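Problem 12. The chain below contains 132 residues. Write out its predicted structure in token notation.
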Amino acid sequence: MGREHTRPMDVLEPSASLDAAVVSHYQLVAPIMERIFGRIPIVWTTPPPLPDARPVYHAKFFGHYSHLTSEHVQHLASIGAQEFHSWFPIVEDPQRARFARFLLERPWSDADDALLENVRRGALIFKALLEA
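Solution.
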């Protein structure tokens, strides 16, 4: 996963109404997420350390893989998690994938037209491979 962050996350101090809105959102939707997706392993993000940086991705919480349960999602949101993703492995074995997900992301700087063009070209190549 390349972006895995394995050390325990520092608890973030609630500092803005955005933090409260995120926690409130996950209090509402976490039970629905658990019902739909079950207890799949998840990857979660916290805000970037700098304003123009990428979010920080975490796959483990205190050395253990995080699982999508309503309680776990709400707890992670309360200490700073803002997004939740999964690589959709088999629930019993996080090393065995059930599905694959490919992310082609735009450059973080809109000024980098050459990099954006590479992402577009890569998407077309990837589309052709999947169609083949």
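Discussion. The two ends are 26 Å apart (CA to CA). Students who got a different answer should revisit the alignment rule from Section 12.3.
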